[in-house]
Predict the 3D structure of the following.
Amino acid sequence: MTGPDILQRVLKAFGHRAPATREPTGNPCRALVPTIGLLVAFTLAGIAPLAHGQGAGNAAASQWGPLMEYRIGPSDVLSIRVRGHEGLSQTVTVRPDGKLSFALVGDLDAAGMTPAELQKSVEAALGKFINILPGEVTVIVDAVHSYKVSVLGEVKDPGRFEFQIRVSVLDALAQAGGLTEFADSSDIVIFRTFGGKEEKLEFNYDRLVKADGTAAWVPVLPGDIILVP
């Protein structure tokens, strides 16, 4: 099931309308500086999958998910260089269907791959038409536009936000203007698809911000849907 499908299910279940997509602006508080080739180490202190009869109050801090490499997604901009065949080199944007169009070979799958995996895929495709050696194709990520997170419910400025560096749940909530006075900050839910599996995670804002006077850094993944009841 795709991210948009999950979003529609969540919206239907909680009676919300789909929010407008927010694009980065010149304001440094709302547009984050891009970093390319990020590795996201997810140590999820204070966040856990919801189980029958289990809440954040009695759930121990846990780790959820191993080290996750950056993977190409729709709207990401890539420069593909072919050494010795400069005429084939080009800059491409990954389409909404997860594919890209490349000279000579046509459409190639890109979404879900690491740059190194796409490099090998392009080499294999080009090898059917020209003589090419391993390492003669280089894939460079010029811009990341696939890191989008939806924040819905009792926040001041709900919407879908685009990030270009890894961010925390608190960052995403801040991007949405913060919680309203009616928000149940101890029962925030994150809907996530990870490794092909759908997860429903509970985020206890109150417990995290009160722990030792600081908030644990709990990351969000591309496609996450944060619902504040």
Notes: Residues 10-21, 23-67 have pLDDT under 50 and may be disordered.
